[in-house]
Design goal:
CATH class: Mainly Beta
Oligomer: single chain
Distance between the termini: 57 Å
Order of helices and strands: HHEEEEEHEEEEE
Strand order of the largest sheet: 1-2-3-4-5-6-7-8-9-10
Structural class: alpha+beta
CATH architecture: Beta Barrel
Number of strands: 10
Length: 186
Amino acid sequence: MKMTSRVAILAAAFLAATLPLAAQKGSGANQAYELASMLSGTWEGSTPGNALRLQIRSTTTDPSHLHDQYVQVTGRYQDDNVRQQGLIRLESQGKGVYFGYIPHFDPTITGLSADVARFTDSEASAACGLVLEPKGDGFMGETVGSTCARAIRGALGKWTIEVDLATLRIRNVKSGETLRFKKVSK
């Protein structure tokens, strides 16, 4: 009898210990990490007129922001040369992930710079964000109005962002203008 109650107590303790893990699965507990893994790497434009290259790499800013990433965009879009860089801050928010973008207008700031997480007043006020929700094998979200117009040159109006392991799509909701990217390396 004592052996049976010890086994029952051990089994109950084991089940109680695993309940938090079961509750986390599908709750968004690792969504920021999953999105950071999807975004990290080199992306190349795959739509006509889009010769842009996105390099997204993990960067260390502080212990409370584990999924920060530095992004650098270079190349040509239609007839314009483009060079922009900034910090992507990912934070779990319910079942989704808050995606914040803060531009660096100073081209000397890199992902390895000590100042990667320091911003001028102009950069901080240009920041934009949205919440990306799980969709299929990836995530999707929509900006609110023209909140990203100062952060991303030419990003007027509402835009949707869809990302999965191999593709990234940014689309203007009103005009339908779409920038597609394919992942070329991790």
